[in-house]
From TrEMBL:
Restriction endonuclease type IV Mrr domain span: 146-252
Top-rank taxon: Bacteria
KW Nuclease (keyword) present: yes
Hydrolase found in the keyword field: yes
Alphabetized InterPro entries for the sequence: Restrct_endonuc-II-like (IPR011335), Restrct_endonuc_IV_Mrr (IPR007560), tRNA_endonuc-like_dom_sf (IPR011856)
Keyword entries, A-Z: Endonuclease, Hydrolase, Nuclease
Molecular function GO terms recorded: endonuclease activity
Pfam family, one: Mrr_cat
Protein name as annotated: Restriction endonuclease
SUPFAM superfamilies xref list: Restriction endonuclease-like
Amino acid sequence: MSSLTHIEKQKLERELGMGGGYVLNFSNRTFDDFFREVVGVNIYDQRFDNGSGSKAQRMRAFWDLATVAQLVMLLEGLVEAWEIYSDARISNTTRDLLENIILRLTGKEKSPNPAKSAATQSLDESVSNVLMQKLIKLSELQPQARGYEFERFLKELFEVYGLAPRASFRMVGEQIDGSFQLQNETYLLEAKWQNAPIGAGDLHTFEGKLGEKASWSRGLFVSISGLTQDGLNAFGRGKRVVCMDGFDLYEILRLRMSFEATVAAKVRRAAETGRPFVSVRELSL
């Protein structure tokens, strides 16, 4: 029986790009060499065929048959050699995933890393003031320029808090899509800056997107102009979405609040009350 959990396997498949039968940019030769030299296993042994015999299927078979020591060697090797077998540098999200699985398998505790604990801490006053002024100035821009600058602002905000935002913040009009990591959870992001408060339609659309993703994904919907009460009522309860408005963002910066604690409090209140939006004014932080 595999020492990896189902969720760990699903996350690894996503990070390794295994959907099409491949694993990163490994060729058959480099895949064979990697397993022989790093793990000490002949990955092209018949016991790893797993049906089609593709690299992805062999990896899945290895996960099920490997010892804990072999899994740790595999994951450590991927961390060390990621840039060799991928077309990009290893992201903070991927590194954290691999290292956290290694720590769980070996039973060790992770050493505190100040650079990665920013989400749990309050911001430096100077950083908070700079971001707060940037947020205020965005309201003075024309819609097209404002959308682009809002994209940059959110990415900068998440980076400051150490949330490892995905680089694929994608603009559609004034809509921004992306994702970030918080408390080892993956959050999908949707943000809108428009004059009128958001109604139920946009919330249902975002919930629909979440429904197409992995079951552990959560959603954060940021609406600078707020959300209508009728829209929230129509959206209903028991969803995987929590919401923020412009006032929330401003207060997080003004009071130099922990972003992690703020989102965690919103998630808890949503679980307790079913309400997807609870203002920071109502949260006990």
